[in-house]
Amino acid sequence: MSKLLEVKNLKTYFYTDDGIAKAVDDVTFDLDSGETLGLVGESGCGKSVSALSIMRLIPDPPGKIVGGEILFKGKDLVKITDDEMQDIRGNDIAMIFQEPMTSLNPVFSCGYQIDEAVILHQKVSKEEARNRSIEMLRLVGIPAPEQRYREYPHQLSGGLRQRVMIAMALSCNPEILIADEPTTALDVTVQAQILELIRKLQDELGMGVIMITHDLGVIAEITKRVAVMYASKVAEYSNSEEIFYNPKHPYTLGLLNSIPKLNKGHDRLATIEGNVPAATNYPTGCHFCTRCKYVDSKLYTSDSKCWNIEPPLEQVSGSGTMHTVACHYWKDIEIRRQKEGDVTPAAVV
To answer: Which of 16-30, 126-140, 287-301 has the highest mean pLDDT?
Structure first.
C-alpha cells in the first residue's frame, strides 16, 4: 500500500509567558491508504496538537511548527502556502473535532454548514450542494435527513450532532479522516454506533483514518497500528496486537493495567501515579521518569540515565514487525516482570 501520510520529526511549540511549551516534540508516524492509525495517551500528551499540525490549524501566535515534515502523498504541508493548504484542508484531509456542540456554528443550520464545505471545495451549485448534504446525512444514519438539514445544532442530540460532524468531514470524499475523540461524552451504545459507522464508511470510501483517543477500548476495536504518546513524544509504536499483548514501555503497561477487569471483583482500579508534566517543564531525560515505578527500583538507584538522557525510539529485537519503544531499560523491565510473574495486562482482559 502507498503511504498517504508521513509525519517525520514533527515539532510544534507554543511560546507563552511561562516559557516554551513543547506540545509536540520530534514525533514520527505514518498512515497507509485504507488503514486506521490510533494515537493514544492521556490528556496533554500532544495527540490533538499533532492532528491540528497536520491540518495546519495551529494558532500563530502563540503556536508554531518549528521543525519536521508532514508529507501528504509526497507534498510537505509545512512548506506550502496558506491558499494551497486551504484547498487540501476539508477536501483531501478532513477532521472530526472533539466537541461537536462547540465545533458547529449555533446560528447556522446543520445543512448550511455542510453546504458551505461542499460549495467551497467541489465548485457546485447551491442545489447540488443541498442534495449532496442530504445524501451525506442519510449516509451517516441520520433519520429524516431532509428535516435535520434545516435544523440547528441545539435541536439535535449529542449523537446526532456527532453524525453531522462526520457528514461534514466526509462531504468532499477526503483521502484522510482525522477523528479527534469522536466518541467522547457519548453513551456506550452511541459510541459503538459511531465507531461502526466510521469503519463502514472507511471500507466504502477507502480512506485512511487517524483515530485520536484516550480510550484503549476504542483502539482495540478499530485500529491497525498504534502510536502511544506521552508528554509530547511517541513512547511506543507498533501494530495493535503487539501493543496489547506484547507491550514494552512502562507507560503502555500502566495504561493497559488501568483498564477495568471483569475478573477483579471489587479491587481498586490500578492507576499511574502523578500527572503529565507541564509542557514548559518536562524532565531532562525520559519524560515519564517522574511517574515510572521502575525508576526507583533496585535496578536503577545508582544510574541517572533515566533522569538525564532522553531515550531514543529503539526497535524491539526479535520482533517480526515494526515495534519501537523509547525506554532505556525495556529489556530489564521485561526480565523483571517475567521473574515476578507479571502477566501482560491485555491477556487478562
So the answer is: 16-30
Q: Where are the domains of the chain?
A: 230-348
Q: Does the domain spanning 230-348 belong to CATH 3.30.420.240?
A: no
Tell me the mean pLDDT in the region 304-312.
86
pLDDT at 348: 47
Residue 272 half-sphere exposure toward CB, CA atoms < 13 A: 21
Cell readout for 27 is 514525533
**Spatial distance between the Cα atoms of 6 and 334, rounded to a whole number of angstroms:** 31
Which residue carries 516559557 as its cell?
19
What mean pLDDT, rounded, does the chain reach? 86
> Cβ distance 227 to 40 under 8 Å?
yes
| CA distances to 63, 289, 295, 326 from 300, in Å | 37, 11, 6, 17
Q: What is the DSSP letter of 256?
A: H
Q: 242 and 78 in contact (C-beta within 8 Å)?
A: no
User: Does residue 12 contact residue 63 with C-beta atoms inside 8 Å?
Assistant: yes
Interatomic CA distance for residues 282 and 31, integer angstroms: 28
Q: Which residues of 17-47 are buried (b: 16+ CB within 10 A; e: fewer)?
A: eeeebbbbbbbbbbbeebbbbbbbbbebbbb
| Percent with pLDDT over 90 in the chain | 42
Q: In what order do the strands lie in the sheet with 75-76?
A: 19-32, 3-16, 63-72, 75-76
For residues 29 and 233, is the Cβ–Cβ distance under 8 A?
A: no
The type of residue at 135 is E
Q: Which long-range contacts (CB under 8 A, 24 or more apart) does 251-259 make?
A: 251/288, 251/291, 251/292, 252/228, 253/345, 254/291, 255/40, 255/41, 255/216, 255/228, 256/216, 256/344, 256/345, 256/346, 257/345, 259/216, 259/217, 259/345, 259/349
Does 109 score more than 60 pLDDT? yes
Q: How many CB atoms lie within 10 A of CB 108?
A: 13
* 247 cis-preceded (ω within 30 degrees of 0): no
> If you search the block for the grid coordinates 507534498, which residue do you land on?
75
